[in-house]
Amino acid sequence: MLVGRASELVNTAMCYETWSALGWADIKYRYRRTTIGPFWLTISTAAMVGSVGLVFAGLFGNDISEYIPYLGAGIIVWTLISATVLEGCNVFVAASGYIKSVPMPLTTHVYRMIFRNLIIFTHNLLLVIILWCIFQWPLGWDVIVGLGGLAIIVVALIGVVLLLGTLCARFRDIPQIIAALMQLLFLLTPIIWMPDAIKSERAHLVVDWNPLYYLLEVVRGPLLGRPPSAWVWIIAIVLALASFAAGSSFYLRFRHRIAYWL
């Protein structure tokens, strides 16, 4: 029964013309009358990576040529995850006008929002190219493996957005809680600090039991020419499948009530 109901997720994904067109329209509307559009986000990210990288490399005693690319790749992947989660909390609330007036699957708005953030992610990848031109770290065909890691992140994010979007349509206080939680997770996830800098065995639990670390690493590692171990891939895949299963099940259970909650 659940498999049959889940066909909505698959059928909507196949109708990519709709949600991709809406995602492009969102980008154009957000950055209309600007000269370089979403590249403003890339510039602000580059400024943060440069300033924070120089300061924290000195504080942690890290090699700048190693730390700044690590920080830059981590920030780019984290921005994709964080922005998608935060926008996902209000994905149905923000699309309430469409939901109440246009007969289309609700998951269209989920794919639309994720596609929009993927567009911004591809713009931000320009920063990695610039950093590589400066620091020239070893980079081979392993970087293509990062596409598989990106697919894993997308699957995980679809599940998270389906769950949080449904919950937040009913309980409007949850987005504030999630925003505070994401700030905490940013500090607890190895983005501005490197796992090798941890000396305490107990402190390694922050990395080993942090699901975001594995999702980050399957994309950041290939971008830095250091593909993660098979164990990291296995955990990331399990996390993505568990997230998708939990989110889709919750959404399919309450999807008919969402329009009444808006």
Radius of gyration: 19 Å
Question: What is the number of beta strands?
Answer: 0
Instruction: Summarize the amount of helix as a percent range.
Output: over 70%
| Domain unit count | 1
User: What is the number of helical segments per DSSP (H or I, 4+ residues)?
Assistant: 13
Distance between the termini: 27 Å
Secondary structure class reads mainly alpha
General shape: globular
H-E string: HHHHHHHHHHHHH
- Stretches where pLDDT is under 50 for at least 5 consecutive residues are none
Explained architecture:
- By secondary structure, the protein is an all-alpha fold.
- It has one domain (2-12, 38-261).
- It is 78% helix and 0% strand.
- It has helices at 2-5, 7-14, 16-30, 39-60, 64-89, 91-94, 96-101, 107-135, 145-170, 174-188, 205-208, 211-223, 230-261.
- The longest helix has 32 residues, at 230-261.
- It is globular, with a radius of gyration of 19 Å.
- The mean pLDDT is 87.
